[in-house]
Amino acid sequence: MRTILRTLLAALTATLLTLTAAPAYAHDELVSSTPAADATLSKAPTEITLTYSANLMNVEGGNRVRVTDSAGNSLVEGKGDAKVSGNTVTQTLNLKDPAADETYTVTWRVVSSDGHPIQGTYRFTVGAGKTASAPVSSASAEQSSEAQNGSDTEHKEGLAPWLWGGGGLLILLVGAIAVMLIRKRNDGSGTTK
């Protein structure tokens, strides 16, 4: 009887420890950029460099940097596929007049080390700058597991903490019922006089 209880208790403990030790679910993030967000420069750069918190996945077509002027004209040739090297992305710019007063918008989308795309937008100005035609949102993690394919399917970032807790409580409840049934069976089976 005690051996069964000890085995059951050990199995229950191991299960609880396994379930409660959930891994961290965090995307990589942009840690720096050249030029920096909201920077004011005297002359436009010839390239944009973005540095992230971890190495990026080099997926064909998955890492893009688009740079536009205040009129929305692209300063990047083609689709904006950027050069990835470890945790750094570099995008070369094609500027007609690097000294002109202008406000530039940098929109980036990369595949983080966990395979999920992250994206963001920021601005910098050259000289006095110009007013951009559309508002810019801050950097954000894209919550789509199929965003690389353009799908709108939601991606769950692991199980919610309450679900882990509920699973743990369910296991405890099943274990307690099993112990009670074993005790009841043993108490009623064998002591007749």
From TrEMBL:
This is CopC domain protein. Residues 135-156 are annotated as: Disordered. One of its GO terms (biological process) is response to copper ion. It is found in: Cell envelope. Gene3D superfamilies: 2.60.40.1220. It holds the Pfam family CopC. Residues 1-26 form the signal peptide. Residues 135-148 have a biased composition (Low complexity). InterPro entries: CopC/D, CopC_dom, Cu-Rt/internalin_Ig-like, Ig_E-set. Residues 27-126 form the CopC domain. It comes from the Bacteria. GO terms for molecular function: copper ion binding. Keywords: Copper, Membrane, Metal-binding, Signal, Transmembrane, Transmembrane helix. PANTHER family: INNER MEMBRANE PROTEIN YEBZ (PTHR34820:SF4). GO terms for cellular component: cell envelope; periplasmic space; plasma membrane. The chain crosses the membrane at residues 162-182.
